[in-house]
Design brief:
With about 600 residues, the chain is of the alpha+beta class. The chain is built from 21 helices and 18 strands. Strands 2-3-4-1-7-8-9 form a seven-stranded mixed β-sheet, with helices on both faces. The chain has a seven-stranded antiparallel β-sheet with strand order 15-12-13-14-11-10-16, with helices on one face. A two-stranded antiparallel sheet has the order 5-6. A hairpin with a 2-residue loop joins β3 and β4.
Length: about 600
């Protein structure tokens, strides 16, 4: 008998149907020489402190840092979980071979291996590794099972992540709660949550401490078009008024008219974080809501594996793209321009070197039915349009720059005219995108950016109307969930350039699959709150970050370095022992530093009791 272990009962049923295990049993399905059972997510976890040393059950400063000589796992103390574990344990003893059918990612690998280890599995193990739950994908996966050992580094990286979170989370939370809580409340510390909170607090303090500064820019209006001077801005209005008087009776002369053609490539396909950012911006969905929605679409076989951090596809997906596009029948008006010619294959979309475990999120080719929720319809629409758009040509535009002079003062303006919509046609019927484009266009015009210009001729001249435009420096904006996710992904560096964003992702904090949960933890702890779409730090959150002197705990960049090392462990390029050793050394230094603090600082919190 071959035993298949999936992560969820629903996935188990999908797989059982394909391989012919259709007889229902208590906690599993059976048939055709197979048994299919499942975990409910995590059945096992790392042991609690008291499981190692009984005295560690009490919260005392003298016991810190708690570092077991060897970490162990246990079955979670829940009757339903323990009953299902016993089913799996019994089936492992009876089977001839195990197929690990857990979610194909780091967390999925950790979940399954812990269960098999705890059950004492010594049977041969193979790995089902699939990117979607369609019947075809499952069949292909079973025809190309991977050797268990191929995923060893992925498991080791997941184990290091869990141990690192235990070392910093449990020790840090006890240390700060015991040392600084004035009312025996819980001060929650975490390897990712604390630097994420610091991002929010630091941004909020930047805004609150911001002092706006006024300046005046010399501009002029010629033929109803505003030109901006190349002069430095005036710090005081009265300093610029004489220049206005000097120029107003002199003619404006066009000195140069240049036109430059340009192209804008389609936006990249979605990884999980960029999908969460887009859904937050367009649909006002939280990061957690988007994750749950795209996970549901994956389980309904409509989209591919969601917990990914790449925006690329592998070359072997290209031959399937035509069939996937044809399945999107409700988008027939967008597909018509693509018919009759070979589908575009861009290196910004198809690149084997940029994909490790899974490719970007795309539709699977299964047509959506009528049973989707509103959120599922909207998120599927984002994924479908993005997928369609990458096969369209670039958006072509013409950038016109007009230079002029009045006396010896130089002026300039520019405008952009779209000559071929290209991929932007895909979003022309998307109201949210249209509204955003209109808003962006208005912003562009106010800054001489993207307005349409009349025809100008070099050498033409005429009257004009010079004036001073007041400019006031603006504070940074509060984080939204979308922009906070971006900051987590790039370790605090907020960038819009997609190529730069890709390069910074290697050292982002957290993983795509966990960032939403980290934000939810901060809400739950009472450290952040939502004000409309903005995220604000509460007094408890601000006080906690202010009391932490150790940059190692609250620096997004330093945490990003650890994340980079975890990825290196996945690739077999960094030592797990060194990673854990560094974290043990770090918590020892932090503990010593905090214990030496004689400032008697305290935080009052009602966010939880020990």
């Amino acid at each position: 008998m071959i035993l298949c272990i999936t992560e969820k009962p629903s996935v188990g049923r999908d797989i059982a149907k394909i391989i012919g295990a259709t007889t229902k049993r208590d906690g599993y399905l059976e048939g055709n020489g197979y048994c299919v059972t499942w975990t409910f997510g995590h059945l096992c976890c790392l042991k609690d402190p008291a499981d190692y040393v009984s005295s560690w059950k009490r919260w005392t400063l003298g016991s810190l840092p708690m570092i077991p000589p060897r970490f162990g796992i246990k079955v979670i103390d829940d009757k339903g979980i323990q009953r299902q574990f016993e089913v799996i344990e019994s089936l492992i003893k009876q089977c001839d071979k195990v197929i690990n059918c857990g979610d194909a990612g780091q967390e999925g690998e950790l979940i399954q291996r812990w269960v098999m280890q705890k059950a004492g599995c010594e049977k041969p193990i193979e790995r089902l590794w699939i990117s979607s739950l369609t019947d075809q994908s499952i069949l292909e996966g079973f025809n190309h099972l991977r050797p268990h050992h191929e995923l060893n580094n992925l498991y080791i990286a997941g184990l290091c992540r869990a141990i690192g979170d235990w070392i910093l989370g449990i020790n840090g939370t006890r240390l700060y709660s015991l040392k600084y809580s004035s009312d025996k409340g819980l001060l929650s510390i975490g390897r990712v949550q604390t630097p994420t909170l610091a991002l929010v607090v630091n941004r909020q303090q930047e805004i609150e401490n911001f002092v706006p500064k006024d300046s005046w820019e010399l501009r002029t209006k010629y033929r109803n078009v505003v030109f901006t001077s190349t002069l430095a801005q005036f710090e005081k209005e009265e300093a610029g008024l004489p220049k206005v008087e000097e120029l107003k009776n002199l003619p404006f002369t066009v000195t140069d008219v240049s036109k430059k053609k340009g192209k804008e490539a389609p936006p990249r396909l979605f990884d999980l974080t960029s999908l969460q950012v887009e859904a937050n911006k367009k649909l006002n969905l939280s990061a957690d809501e988007t994750l749950k929605t795209i996970q549901s679409l994956y389980e309904k076989k409509l989209t591919t594996y969601p917990r990914v951090d790449t925006t690329y596809l592998t070359d072997d997906v290209y031959p399937k793209c035509g069939q996937i596009l044809n399945s999107l029948k409700e988008y027939s008006d967008l597909l018509t321009p693509l018919r009759g010619s070979k589908l575009r294959k861009s290196k910004k979309v198809f690149d084997n070197s940029k994909v490790t475990d899974h490719h970007a999120i795309i539709p699977t080719g299964v047509a959506p039915g009528n049973s989707l929720t509103k959120a599922e319809q909207d998120v599927f629409d984002l994924v479908a349009r993005r997928f369609i758009s990458v096969f369209y040509p670039d958006c072509a535009f013409e950038q016109t720059t007009v230079k002029g002079e009045v006396g010896k003062v130089q002026f300039k303006t520019s405008g952009k005219v779209i000559t071929d919509q290209g991929w932007k046609f895909v979003y022309s019927s998307d109201k949210a995108s249209a509204d955003r484009r209109e808003s962006e266009s208005a912003d562009d015009e106010s800054d001489d950016g993207g307005k349409t210009l009349p025809s100008f001729e070099k050498g033409e001249s005429g009257p004009h109307d010079p004036f001073l435009q007041k400019r006031t420096t603006q504070p940074p904006k509060y984080f939204t969930e979308g922009t906070l996710l971006k900051a987590m992904e790039t370790a605090g560096s907020l960038v819009d350039d997609e190529d730069l964003r890709e390069s910074l992702k290697a050292n982002g904090i957290g993983r795509p699959s966990t960032r939403a949960a980290i934000i939810e933890i901060l809400y739950k702890r009472g450290y952040i709150r939502k004000e409309r779409k903005s995220i604000r730090a509460t007094k408890a959150g601000i006080d906690l970050i202010s009391i932490i002197d150790e940059e190692l705990l609250k620096s997004a960049k330093l945490t990003g370095i650890w994340e980079g090392r975890l990825r290196a462990i996945e690739r077999g390029e960094y030592s797990a022992e060194e990673f854990i050793g560094n974290l043990k050394e770090m918590i020892s230094k932090i503990t010593l530093s905090v214990l030496k603090d004689n400032s008697n600082r305290k935080i009052s919190t009602d966010s939880g009791k020990k």
